Fold this sequence. Notes:
The chain has three helices and seven strands; from the N terminus they run βαββββββαα. By secondary structure, it is an alpha+beta fold. It has one domain: Alpha-D-Glucose-1,6-Bisphosphate, Chain A, domain 4 (2-Layer Sandwich), CATH 3.30.530. The longest helix is centred in the last third of the chain and has 20 residues. The chain is globular. A seven-stranded antiparallel β-sheet has the order 1-7-6-5-4-3-2. It comes from Streptomyces lydicamycinicus. InterPro entries: COQ10_START (IPR005031), ORF3 (IPR047137), START-like_dom_sf (IPR023393). This is Coenzyme Q-binding protein COQ10 START domain-containing protein. Pfam families: Polyketide_cyc.
Amino acid sequence: xxxVKETVxxxxxxxxxxxxxxxxxxxxxxxxxxxxxTQLDDQHNRWTTKIGGVRREFDTEIxxxxxxxxxxxxxxxxxxxxxxxxxxxxxxxxxxxxxLVMDIEPSGVAEKAADMSGTIERRVKGDMRxxxxxxxxxxxxxxxxxxxxxxx
Length: 152
């Protein structure tokens, strides 16, 4: 299993950065290789990705969510095995640090090669830069879900 960690500082208040991250169906707008995310309910999403020419579908479950602080998830179905945590730290009234940590278990030959070559890490870094550009350009979130999901 590989761990990827990336941090970006965004020029929006913490609630704006957090609220935008809860809009999972908009992830294809800034995440490379993510074709579609369908939110099934407050805790579950279905993902369609295409990485290295390989299309995968998998489901994720949010296992911990605290508004303006963190969202943690894990995969529940499909060949893709991952878990992750995105956290939000208020720097001041108009700046937020967003940190993403993901544990990824590459499943196929293409994914293992992408992991070994650093492609997955570069993609995550690019996704975080694109999130920064996306939210700063918008200046406001496109929606929000402020519910609490407790672990266990």
